[in-house]
């Protein structure tokens, strides 16, 4: 797997210089403050955060695997002959609105965002339509059909939305629910909440 073909798979000798050898430093409050740049002020706070993080991370990982298995079972039993173009364009417009709002919150324009990503306006629209909208709209149509059949409310309440943020931001690597929301966007998050509602009711 070595990137240089002429060296890949061959034996190699490395010359190293050991600048220091000693015992590991004692983990103290001062050391934690130093290495985390004052993010944590004590060993106990540092341990508490990462204990909770990994507990939530592995719980989310397990839940995600179960959810994906259930979703695969649902989605493979459904056949959609043709996706409505209007629904796919609605998805594209929602995404463009989200990226526009996000850019403006950072003091930029949508045009600045497109330039940074290396797209023209039309290229970005076509990327959304061709590469992303099919999966998103397919999932939404299937979820809507399941909601109708099972009597599940297809709308997402503020309580459900906020609960999803609170329960998932840490395990997904965000420092707060607000950061999670700002990074992902409410539209995408509401789709995730609805997905979890449907999957939960079918377990």
Please tell me about this protein's structure.
The protein is mainly α. The chain contains 8 helices and no strands. It is extended and about 65 Å long. The relative contact order is 0.09. The mean pLDDT is 91.
Order of helices and strands: HHHHHHHH
> What share of the residues does DSSP label as strand, in percent?
under 5%
Integer-rounded radius of gyration:
24 Å
Distance between the termini: 42 Å
Judging from the principal axes of the Cα atoms, what is the shape?
extended
**How many beta strands in the DSSP annotation?**
0
* Biggest beta-sheet profile: none
Q: What secondary-structure arrangement, pairings included, does this model have?
A:
Layout (H helix, E strand, L loop, with lengths): L28 H7 L7 H33 L9 H21 L4 H8 L3 H30 L7 H11 L8 H8 L1 H16 L2
Provide tags for this entry.
single chain, about 200 residues, mainly alpha, extended
What's a quick, concise take on this entry?
Helix content is 66%, strand content 0%. The chain is an all-alpha fold and 203 residues long. Helix 3 (85-105) crosses helix 5, helix 5 runs parallel beside helix 8 (186-201) and helix 6 packs across helix 7.
